[in-house]
Amino acid sequence: MMEDLLDRPMLPFAELTGSWRFHSDVEGIGWLTLDTPNAPVNTLSTAAILELEELVERIEGLAAKRELLGVVLLSAKDSGFIAGADIREFDDMDLAALPEALRRTHALFERIENLKIPVVAGIHGFCLGGGLELALACHYRIAVNNDKTRIGFPEVNLGIFPGFGGTGRAIRQAGPVDAMGIMLTGKTLRAGAARKLGLVDKLVRHRDSLRWEARKAVLQKRRSTQAPITKRVMAMGPLRGYVAGKMREQAAKKARREHYPAPYALIDLFEQHGNDWRAMLAGEIEAFVPLMGSTTATNLRRVFFLSEGLKKQAAKGHQFRRVHVIGAGVMGGDIAAWCALRGMSVTLQDLDMDRIKPALERGKALFKKRLKKRFEVDTAMLRLQADPQGKGVARADVIIEAVVENLEVKRKIFAELEGQLKPGAILATNTSSIELERIAEGLADPARLMGLHFFNPVAQLPLVEVIRSSFNTDADIGKGAAFAVAIGKSPVVVKSAPGFLVNRVLMPYMLGAVERVERGESPELLDAAAVAFGMPMGPIELMDTVGLDVGQSVATELGHPVPEGSRFAELVRRGKLGRKSGQGFYSWKDGKAEKGETPVHADLAGLGRELVQPLVDTTEIVVAEGVVANADLADIGVIMGTGFAPFLGGPLQARRDGRA
Ligand code: NAI
Questions:
Q1: Binned average pLDDT, 10 residues per bin, the chain of 660 residues
Q2: Cα 652 to Cα 131: distance, rounded to the nearest angstrom
Q3: Domain spanning 2-293 has what CATH number?
């Protein structure tokens, strides 16, 4: 099929070749458009790359015959330019054949770069990973300057770094410090920021203008310029070693080399070749291959697919516009602000205005941090309304109760609410410990109530446990999950059982460590051990962060009451509740635990592994009891709700691999 399409003479209209469309217009401009079949986003699959090879050969021929003035690369998808390589292919990749495949793609991109006619990329929406690498091989890049454009290299999140020549070309265009910064963090840039860095050459306001601007760029033979010497100097001579050292220090603050090797391998590559982008390209393949085969990369891909899969729990066809939150405390206030940030119109109720005000202030601070432009902050504030009388209830699509953890108070609130609801509105509680059935008992229709259990701090933790009571139907829960997805959270459906998933697995782990401290072991050592294993924070510091009072009540609820006279019980009795009161197991200053020296230990990670045993054991039990539907959901839920080492792929995956 490909063969005979390519053998045909050039036609002035579109030819379909699978992923790509190519046609030339009367002016002699070739329009090369990617349209990955049967997919909402474009990816650079192996098939797409092989097709592109054939098309480039043909373009070379046409350029040599002067039948083509230039080429414009575009995407046919509304979602964006190219989201990256096709990650689904990675798991089955033959590692022995990978270097050759990479060399072939490198050669292809080099041929594009070496074309004598201008090649211009027109970018809208996502331009990530392999997509950006292809764009960087073009001579000139134009991007739509709107909210949807996102440009960057998210590869580190999958345990690798750019492998289609992106390392060297990003440095060539943006200079070493900025280019390494975006590759090491995986952060994506908006169009304006990408332009400032030199990854993009020109901005247009609307997608409709891309073609016109690209046409002009071809006719004027525009070419991007490389990063200026003032930037390049940072990769020259002895400065490069110094810069690499600084980058290693930064990386070490976030992740250990033994857990996440990719950033360190990239810094090594930079240290060797960062002053010569071509040498960087050559070194890239060699350094890339072992990363691709690493268990870290395999597990991070697993985490990626599992978290994408969570969206499938959401029922289709629901729209949510208005949210009413009752209780403007720690949780309710932050849930309301989060929903407003994500575009919902929110009414926030509490006993009086004075209790709502601090939540609005916190909301404003969140909007200022997350939204760049002032008018965006102002409109988000308009979406977040104080509502002491509860007028918003009747119009709300979703009602979330987050008042004090007291059964009678909650029952009374729901009894009053039930008659006022819009048909089909979600009625949810954020309770962390009361059985849903007990709250729902008094309702005329107990099936209406479900749990939407958020985590503190709401803006940082992506998980929402969608709690299913014995009254709920699949449809109810699918709707709850759809709401979580609509506000950009990751839902995991969990049965109403004490502690649900996350608190249930965390508590035995935290209490186990507390017991060791009671026996005289060093909290600093235990925390350092858990971090060496791969946890984001040690169990004692976590207990202090959650609050000792909260920890104590969850422990009681789960049947592990804190013993009278223990250090833990004493701390609670004396109001030393952890971070929030400035003193718990640690003293806290400016939100940081003041830790003493960590005692030397021969096998920190081994000790950490010992500490997380109860967490892993409990995850197994939770799955066996059917609290979550399967092991995969438990793994991703525990990762998202506790930060459990993503490079291990979740507690159950780690156990299967003999690593926990
Ligand atoms: P909080 O004590 O900070 O806030 C509770 C708010 O509810 C207060 O502002 C209070 O004035 C208000 N309230 C009490 N009765 C009310 C009524 N009848 N009508 C309207 N407002 C009323 O409590 P927090 O920590 O925000 O907890 C709220 C709920 O969220 C609880 O069910 C708790 O179990 C749950 N939760 C708490 C988490 C945490 O880390 N604090 C985490 C996840 C869930």
A1: 36 58 96 95 95 96 96 97 94 91 97 98 98 98 96 97 98 98 97 98 97 98 96 95 98 95 98 96 96 96 96 95 97 97 98 97 97 93 98 98 94 94 96 92 93 94 96 96 98 96 96 97 98 96 93 90 94 95 96 95 96 98 97 97 95 96
A2: 34
A3: 3.90.226.10
Any idea which residues carry the catalytic annotation? 85, 130, 133, 155
For 147, the enclosing helix (H) or strand (E) is none
Considering only CA atoms, which residue is closest to atom 14 of ligand 1?
A: 403
Q: Is the Cβ–Cβ distance between 299 and 649 less than 8 Å?
A: yes
Domain 503-626 CATH assignment equals 1.10.10.60 = no
> Is 648 in contact with 512 (CB distance < 8 Å)?
no
DSSP strands (E only) in 39-146: 70-75, 80-82, 119-123, 126-128, 140-144
Reading the block at residue 508, the tokens are 């035995």
Only one residue has tokens 């003035």, namely 69
For residue 452, list its beta bridge partners.
466
CATH classification code of 312-498: 3.40.50.720
> In whole angstroms, how far apart are CA 652 and each of 202, 229, 498, 635, 655?
48, 50, 21, 6, 5
Measured at the CA of 216, the angle between CA 211 and CA 218, to 5 degrees, comes to 95
DSSP output for 501-532: THHHHHHHHHHHHHHHHHTT--HHHHHHHHHH
- Whether this prediction's pTM lies above 0.85 is answered by yes
> Tens digits of per-residue pLDDT, 121-170?
999 999 999 999 999 999 999 999 998 999 999 999 999 999 999 999 99
360/363 Cα distance (integer angstroms): 5
Cβ neighbours of 203 (radius 10 Å): 18
Distance (Å) from CA 326 to ligand 1 centroid: 9
Provide residues with CB under 6 Å of ligand 1.
326-332, 349-351, 355, 402-405, 409, 413, 430-432, 454, 456, 550
| Residue of the CA atom closest to atom 15 of ligand 1 | 403
Element holding 116 (H helix, E strand): none
Per domain, the residue ranges of the chain are 2-293, 312-498, 503-626
